[in-house]
Amino acid sequence: MKRKNLIVLLWVTIATALFFFLFFTKEKTIDNLMLSFLISGLYSFVLGMGNGMLNDYLNKKVPWSEATTKRAVISVISILIANIILVYICNYINFVLFQKDATSEEFFSGKYNFINWFMVNIALLISAFLHARGFMEELKKTSKKEVVEQKLIAKSANAQFETLKNQLDPHFLFNSLNVLSALIDENPKQAQKFTASMSKIYRYVLEQKDKELVTVEDEIEFAKTYCELLKTRFEDSVDFIFDVRKEDYRRYVVPLSLQLLLENCIKHNFATSSKPLIIKVFSENDTLCIENNLQVREQIKESAGIGLANIVQRYSLLTKRNVFIEKSDDYFKVKLPVLSDKPNVVSIKPEDEDKAYKKAQKRVKEIKGFYANLISYCLVISFLIFINLYTQSRYHWFWWPLLGWGFGVASHAFQVFGIGESWQEKKIQEIMDKQKNKNNGNV
């Protein structure tokens, strides 16, 4: 057990010893005071440490966060058995060994059954509180861990997304300069025209690279402009065909995806007047396809692999839908998912954080209120049972507050941990999440 728990047990021992010595001990002697401390320490440390070790053992073997229902059942059974054994041990040591009020035969004959039953109930109330406290600590750790993990995932995703987007500038510039360098030698006039057009295109690159998604219409218009630049160099060696449905124009794709894929087509295939490279951009179901006839050229040096990998990774951060690649002996095709809305899975808005914090704060307040109610119930009912049995053992009136208040505590627990307004909120959120996932699946 932890040191702070042992200190708590020590203070409980001192408080109960003084209470029983001052109010229920007739002869105020040093021997009786020491006996009172000894008996209080016996019950406090045996029951407290026993339940504490049991709770620690169950936390290791069956954590609350992994199997809540299973743990609850095991806890109920184990604390019932453990506390019956511990109470009988404590009562035996107290009445037979310390106070010498009975012999072993008398203790086990049934004379002390009522006292044993009473002490078992008190021990179970205290044990229930200790295990509930352990559950709350485990819940707090798990919740804190989940929050930290989600923040790390979000930060990592943001950083990864920014890194991917920052690849686009040098990648586009490097490839464009390669084309320009080739044109300078082949056709200086075309090189001048290419330089003027490239500045317009590069402006689009700078404008769009920081966006998560752009409309298909914007991407198609940019791709057509870029194709004109490629035609400037390759002339009739390359042909471009666009056949995109008008209804797809208002949907979304990853920015510069078409430009990167067009680059790949040129980069990995040879194109001549006799064997032109034909590149098609068209709609197919819920995808935007880029297809070219396969005329693989020999690579002088290994490709960096930035283009297609960049697109695949950016899509993976924005949607669960995949980028599909088809390759045969005759053609190479890439299918880009076309999205109906703009998902925002890699960023957390400040207002969302504020709402989440307020919701968590309200939740913690509800849980603290329940446990304050539970602690009050355990303490007050235990005191009433003791007063009732000490003053009037024949009529057990303590059952009325025990059951009445107990139903109230149970109702409070159901409201906080699964039923009532909290349950309604959970079901509403669950239905909303299902609907959201369904919509994302249809995107």
Describe the structure.
71% of the residues lie in helices and 8% in strands. With 443 residues, the chain is an alpha+beta fold. The protein folds into three domains: 1-151, no CATH class; 167-337, Histidine kinase-like ATPase, C-terminal domain (Heat Shock Protein 90); 381-443. A five-stranded mixed β-sheet has the order 2-4-5-7-6, covered by helices on one side. It is rod-shaped. The two termini are 54 Å apart. Residues 345-349 and 419-423 have low confidence and may be disordered.
Question: Given this structure, which CATH class of the largest domain is correct?
Answer: Alpha Beta
End-to-end C-alpha gap? 54 Å
Radius of gyration: 37 Å
Question: pLDDT under 50 segments (min length 5)?
Answer: 345-349, 419-423
CATH homologous superfamily classification of the largest domain? Histidine kinase-like ATPase, C-terminal domain
Work out the strand percent: 5-15%
- On the 0 to 100 scale, the average pLDDT is 77
CATH topology of the largest domain: Heat Shock Protein 90
Spatial shape:
rod-shaped
Largest sheet: number of strands, sense, barrel closure: 5 strands, mixed
The tally of structural domains comes to: 3
Q: Which strand order spans the largest sheet, edge to edge or round the barrel?
A: 2-4-5-7-6
**Helix percentage range:** over 70%
- Work out the helix count: 13
- Going by CATH, the architecture of the largest domain would be 2-Layer Sandwich
Order of helices and strands: HHHHHHHEHEEHEEHEEHHH
